[in-house]
Write a structure and sequence with these properties.
Oligomer: single chain
Strand content: 5-15%
Helix content: 40-55%
Distance between the termini: 53 Å
Number of strands: 5
Radius of gyration: 19 Å
Largest sheet: 5 strands, parallel
Length: 172
């Protein structure tokens, strides 16, 4: 089984956040790989992975990084494959804002789709949606996932209806 998504993080300490992307890709039955690479400490390996990803069948790269968070942008500079950046609130972080802005504020021509702080789950869903544009089986799984999200909201409203208040105008 060859990976379709490459999940890359700056260090193994990012795995508790990035695990959410792994979980959702696993649920969608999308093969993926996981690597720790640093834009600053292993720049040659980052460039090599990014340059050769498409030759290995990678369709999307999810890159998580904290602090200065250069990893997603560096990867995007070396590949034509879509890159999804996950800003991570690291121990050296300024409440995560440094990571968010480092990933969001990419120069023209080097886009990185950026999800919320620690939003690896959404990165996995977005990667699945990108792949789903060309693969019907994955499209069907993503569509089913979306239907189930809607059902959860309907179910939540039914649950909220049991709370009765004298001046509540709905849920009676």
């Amino acid at each position: 089984m060859n990976p379709k998504v490459s999940i890359i993080m700056g260090s193994a300490s990012d795995m508790p956040v990035m695990e959410e992307a792994c979980n959702i890709l696993n649920d969608f039955k999308i093969p993926f790989e996981v690597n720790a690479l640093s834009a600053h400490r292993t720049p040659d390996q980052v460039a090599e992975l990014a340059r050769n990803a498409h030759e290995r069948g990678i369709k999307v790269i999810i890159a998580g990084a904290g602090g200065a968070a250069h990893l997603p942008g560096v990867i995007a500079a070396f590949t034509p494959i879509p890159v999804i950046g996950v800003p991570i609130k690291a121990s050296i972080s300024i409440d995560g804002w440094d990571s968010i802005l480092s990933i969001l504020q990419m120069p023209g021509g080097i886009p990185v789709a950026t999800v919320a702080l620690n939003g690896a789950r959404n990165a996995g869903i977005l990667a699945a949606q990108i792949i789903a544009t060309g693969e019907k089986d994955i499209f069907d799984r993503v569509a089913s996932f979306k239907v189930n999200l809607a059902k959860k909201v309907v179910s939540a409203n039914a649950e909220l209806a049991r709370y009765k208040f004298e001046y509540r105008t709905n849920g009676k």
